[in-house]
Amino acid sequence: MENQNEKLLAQLRDDLATEQEKYNARLAEIKVKEQAAMAEKVKRQQSQQRVTETSNLLIQKTIENANLDPRQYRSVYERTFNLYGQQKAQELFVSSVIGLLTHKHTGVESATARFGNGGLTWQAKSFNSPQELYKAVLSSLHGEDGGDFDPLGGHEWFDVILDSLFEDPTFLPAESVMPERFTKYVQGLVAVNQMSRTNPIGLPDADDLTVDDMIYLQSLLGDY
Questions:
Q1: Which ranges constitute the DSSP H helices of the chain?
Q2: Model-level pTM?
Q3: What's the half-sphere exposure (Cβ side, CA atoms, 13 Å) at 15?
């Protein structure tokens, strides 16, 4: 009986050892697969980053060489938006606009002390207002059929850009090459657009007005 028990214990030990070996083998296999999956993930991320850097450099160089292709730009912009989100796409857009406006041969100039009075020249063409210039810049980036392409949702930020450019021509290029500062700068431009649409002239609260006064204001402001 004692020998039989010993045999059973020995068999159990062998079975446990076998199961442990199988478990260790499965664990090692899982680790190998996890490492391979992690390596593949890192490779994809590195590949995406390299393509992004190359694409951004392409846009920068084509702007510098005055041969920007809107089809290429749309492709790079859409890829940036899909991979990295709206913020990074807006940064690419603003950086591209800055590159176009500060081009050493065809950058924007103003014949008047206040650019809102007309006299704007860009790429050998004249513009009567910042809004006209803004539309031309959008077309150069996204093509004549760009439709509603307007990443920041309005032209108010563009006026800020022009102000900065005419006040200090070196300011914008310096901002655009400092990633952290540029991110905050673009966020500020987005905020400018948002503020211009919420309550641009400080309208009083409707609760503080009589019905007649509220109707008068509505008729006065229209779609303002």
A1: 2-64, 70-84, 86-101, 130-142, 156-167, 171-176, 179-198, 211-221
A2: 0.74
A3: 6
Would you put residue 202 in left (φ > 0), alpha (ψ -120 to 50) or beta?
A: left
Q: How far apart are CA 131 and CA 118, in angstroms?
A: 10
- DSSP secondary structure, 107-135, as one string: --EESSSSGGGS-EEETTEEESSHHHHHH
Q: Is 110 left (phi over 0), alpha (psi -120 to 50) or beta?
A: beta
Going by C-alpha positions, the residue among 167, 160, 165 that lies closest to residue 192 is 160
d(CA 13, CA 177): 67
| pLDDT for res 137 | 95
CA quadruple 40, 42, 47, 52: dihedral sign = positive
Q: How far apart are CA 149 and CA 166, in angstroms?
A: 26
Hey, what are 80's tokens? 């940036």
- DSSP letters for 21-55: HHHHHHHHHHHHHHHHHHHHHHHHHHHHHHHHHHH
Q: Tell me the pLDDT tens digit for each residue of 107-128.
A: 999 988 888 887 899 999 999 9
What does the pLDDT look like over 62-96, one tens digit per residue? Answer: 999 999 999 999 999 999 999 999 999 999 999 99
Per-residue pLDDT, 38: 83
